[in-house]
């Protein structure tokens, strides 16, 4: 099962666009509504995820972040 993180959905709109229940058969999805404290906090919370869906521009996607997310595929 692919682990997917939806980032920066502070208005909880992702559920309006995507049927998360239907996708739950193939994907383990977690929505992060609150911003991360810093890049290290983001790495700690996202280290197990294989895919990131980015809703807003709150979380800076730096080369360091990508390098430290060893399971990231998408």
What is the 3D form? globular
Strand content: 15-25%
* Residue share in helix: 25-40%
**Biggest sheet character:** 3 strands, parallel
In total, the number of strands is: 3
Spans where pLDDT lies below 50 across 5 or more residues: none
- With strands numbered from the N-terminus, the spatial order across the biggest sheet is 2-1-3
Give the C-alpha Rg. 12 Å
- Separation of the first and last Cα atoms: 14 Å
Element pattern in H and E: EHHEHEH
Class by SSE composition: alpha/beta
What is the number of helices? 4
Round the mean pLDDT to the nearest integer and report it: 91
Tell me which oligomeric state these chains represent: single chain
Primary descriptors:
4 helices, three-stranded parallel sheet, alpha/beta, 22% strand, 74 residues
Summarize the topology.
Layout: E1 2-7, H1 14-17, H2 20-23, E2 27-32, H3 39-46, E3 51-54, H4 63-68
Parallel strand pairs: 1-2, 1-3
Structure in words:
The relative contact order is 0.29. This protein is of the alpha/beta class and 74 residues long. The protein has four helices and three strands. The model has no long low-confidence stretch (mean pLDDT 91). Strands 2-1-3 form a three-stranded parallel β-sheet, with no helix packed on it.
Summarize the structure.
The chain is of the alpha/beta class. Helix content is 30%, strand content 22%. The chain contains four helices and three strands.
């Amino acid at each position: 099962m692919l682990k997917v993180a939806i980032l920066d959905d502070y208005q909880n709109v992702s559920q309006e666009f995507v049927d998360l229940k239907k996708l739950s058969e193939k994907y383990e999805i977690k929505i992060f509504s609150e911003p991360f404290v810093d890049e290290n906090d983001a790495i700690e919370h996202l280290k197990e995820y294989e895919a990131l869906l980015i809703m807003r521009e709150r979380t800076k996607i730096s080369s360091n972040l990508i390098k430290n997310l060893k399971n990231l595929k998408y």
